[in-house]
Task: inverse folding
């Protein structure tokens, strides 16, 4: 069966995700604001869940319609053939959000959508009470300017949680954002990488997995693996194909430094869990002591900044130090993310290019020097 899928992603990464999906061989890829849609079957669902570095989750779109009152919402949801996706013993929690819509109450929308699904399934299964003791088939809705989307979540825990990072540093960067930074920096199997503010090692690990062509979801499970309507072999086959594509011994190596010994300890632990510890060296070190070799390399980093760590003056001092120890030069790429509009001034050089990205709700720019 062919589905229409919706993959939410961080603002600013829609184009990157579209390209990633196209390279996977996915059909009908179309970027939207904060998401990308595409078409595919059960195997496509499994492949994207396991292989996407940039998507937040993979949703099956069941319907899209306009509803400005609860009666209309109920009627339109009830028309959806939920029996194709939800068994009589399955749980079916409802979650979602509403933005700039007449039906602005999320609990109210949840209640009406749940009632419509129950009434639909009651008529199909000829039962009035649902135990909901089976698989949890999460129904998600989005409402924006009265336009509703009703979807089935195939992912479960968000895709940024790869399974390698049980503990975090003080100001962690999401795995999907780190992957977007590495994507824009163009990581190759022979890349030499440095991160002088490595925290819990997320940038290093995402880069190493990219260099190995290691699918980020290989070490975790997904909600759809328990769904009755999903082909049980889809995820098994997708995993086997992903394993075949791993480059076991690339020439890649990454060096990470942080002044906090606990961060270095986390980096080492996380790298081992991810299976890339042989590609990463992490040591306690201050950015002022960074000594880059005179060869082709890349620096990809998320420096501390005033909105989360330190104060703005201290953060800007670090930017200045970074510019002194890692200035742009031939054969060297510098990629630093910051919400500070004065980053280029403090670093000491205008960026060749900058890309707007969001670190959670914080608007940032990735400053790129080639």
Result:
């Amino acid at each position: 069966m062919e589905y229409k899928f919706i993959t939410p992603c961080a603002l600013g990464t829609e184009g990157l995700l579209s390209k990633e999906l196209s390279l996977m061989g996915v059909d009908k890829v179309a970027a939207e604001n904060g998401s990308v849609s595409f078409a595919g079957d059960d195997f496509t669902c499994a492949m994207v869940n396991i292989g996407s570095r940039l998507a937040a989750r993979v949703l099956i779109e069941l319907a899209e319609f306009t509803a400005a009152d609860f009666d209309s919402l109920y009627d339109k949801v009830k028309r959806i053939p939920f029996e194709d996706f939800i068994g009589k013993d399955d749980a079916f929690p409802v979650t979602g959000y509403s933005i700039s819509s007449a039906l602005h109450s999320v609990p109210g929308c949840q209640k009406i959508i749940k009632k419509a699904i129950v009434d639909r399934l009651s008529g199909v299964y000829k039962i009035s009470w649902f135990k909901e003791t089976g698989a949890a088939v999460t129904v998600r809705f989005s409402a924006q300017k009265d336009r509703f989307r009703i979807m089935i979540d195939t992912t479960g825990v968000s895709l940024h949680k790869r399974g390698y990072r049980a503990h975090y540093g003080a100001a962690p960067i999401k795995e999907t954002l780190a992957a977007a930074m590495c994507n824009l920096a163009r990581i190759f199997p022979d890349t030499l990488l440095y991160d002088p503010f490595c925290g819990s090692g997320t940038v290093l690990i995402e880069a190493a997995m990219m260099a190995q062509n290691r699918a980020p979801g290989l070490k975790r499970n997904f909600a759809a693996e328990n769904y009755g309507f999903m082909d049980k072999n889809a995820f098994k086959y997708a995993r086997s194909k992903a394993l075949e594509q791993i480059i076991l011994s690339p020439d890649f190596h990454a060096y990470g430094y942080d002044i906090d010994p606990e961060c270095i300890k986390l980096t080492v632990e996380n790298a081992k869990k991810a299976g890339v510890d042989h590609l990463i060296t992490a040591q306690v070190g201050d950015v002022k002591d960074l000594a880059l070799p005179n060869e082709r390399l890349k620096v990809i980093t998320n420096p501390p900044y005033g909105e989360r760590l330190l104060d703005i003056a201290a953060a800007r001092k670090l930017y200045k130090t970074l510019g002194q120890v890692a200035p742009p030069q031939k054969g060297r790429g510098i990629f630093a993310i910051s919400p500070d509009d004065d980053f280029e001034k403090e670093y000491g050089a205008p960026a060749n290019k900058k890309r707007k990205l969001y670190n959670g709700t914080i608007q940032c720019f990735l400053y790129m020097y080639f």
